[in-house]
Amino acid sequence: MPKGAGWRITLIITFIALSCIYLVPTLAPTLPSWWKGLLPKDKISLGLDLQGGTHLVLEVETQKAVEGTLDLVATDLEDTLNGKNLRFKRISRSGPDTVTIVLYEKDTAAAVQQLLKDKYREYEITPSVEDGGMFGIRLRMKEQDIQDRKDKAVAQALETIRNRIDQFGVSEPVIARQGTNQIVVQLPGIKDPQRAIDLIGRTARLEFKMVREGVTPTGPIPDDAEVLNEKVVDPTTGAVNETPFVVDKKALITGDLLTDAQVRIDSQFNQPYVAIEFNSLGAKLFDQITAANVGKRFAIVLDNTIYSAPVIRERISGGSAQISGNFTEKTASDLAIVLRAGALPAPVKVIQNVTVGASLGKDSIDKGLMAGAIGVLLVIGFMAVYYKLAGMVANLGMVLNIIYLLGSLAALGATLTLPGIAAIVLLIGMSVDANVIIFERIREELRLGKSPKAALDAGYDRAFLTIMDSHVTALITAAVLFQFGTGPVKGFAVSLSLGIIINLFTSLTGTRVIFDLFLHKGRVKKMSI
Q1: pTM of the model
Q2: Which of 219, 261, 270, 295 is the most buried (most CB within 10 A)?
């Protein structure tokens, strides 16, 4: 055996064995029970364009995030001024970027203005005179801060949607930002696209508000209160009834203080409900609020809809509560998912919804496989005719390339897309391209009168830098595509990158071993090349 050939042959055989083992879950319809222990179970997943699914483009209403920030500032100012006994008439958001404070007295206005300068230094503070001789102060967000808040809203929405989809159980989803305020979501193989859309788009703003018992919904509503409806679905007829309640505008506790949400079944009525757990701060607030409001009604509000408004019978300690309503197991599960994943920082709306059928995916697979088969046959035929027996060695290297590449995709649990198949077809040509460079170098050496063994060594040595240079350049391109591309482009980049690395091994090591074995004894006088 030629020197150094032993470890190369061992590597080749080991990679073939590993590739075949990792491909078994993909190729076998069912796995035997003994396989499911230590042996690999992941298979090559098919992308949206191959197995069907849903493609969504969502638009984040970023201005709502800015308005939400200003509402929090207004609420904080109310608490601060009340705590310092500074009288005011009104604190409210006015316009898309301003909070207005209306005060009765000039001295109070001066004190509040100084307080704002100390507490909200990043805001523009402008005094004004309001109608009726009142003193006003306008607190305005700067343009850069507005843009930063909008950008963070999209980033937060992206992460929240990703968390929700991960818990929803979609295999290999694609979730990526597009432009300034859009998010692309691809859900391969999903069976209920509308449920997914509802789950993704729900704002999930959970609030606990006190019910105003003495105020009727049809009468005058105080400025610090609002009317919200409790929706009750009849389980037998499906009819929806709405009961209006007057509740405080200000939430006493919000969903930001939750740590967990799980579906439970009520043992008495056999109905699902959502059990929630608060963090330490939430538990403390919940304990204080329930202790101070025994006998009063407490509305549990999600996205401005009351889910339940129970009477607080006793002080509730421990940081646990439950959201009950006319849930099915599916709706309760979806509510628990969005509460665990967190609220969206701003509403999102679906601006594009495309459902890709599985029949289109099957057609794409068939055409991709047909293109690959034709490409393989044409390359095999050309190499066999033009380079004779040496061409058959290159063909063997190409087959090894394909086996290694598919095995690597399976080992990584990668998603195969239509562009990924295109990359594989492209690599069929690339796999023999390196060998063509080597063979032409060998031919040149043979024309100079060198022996087959000397010509082989010189051909591989002289072609090494050229092959390495071209493959490294292609690998850099693939890396850029993977970093900045989305969805199918990433699939193409993954297949291309793996193929380039594998092709370096098979062209410089795999085919070289075969030639070395034939020329080892030095008895071959002529190469079929």
Answers
A1: 0.61
A2: 261
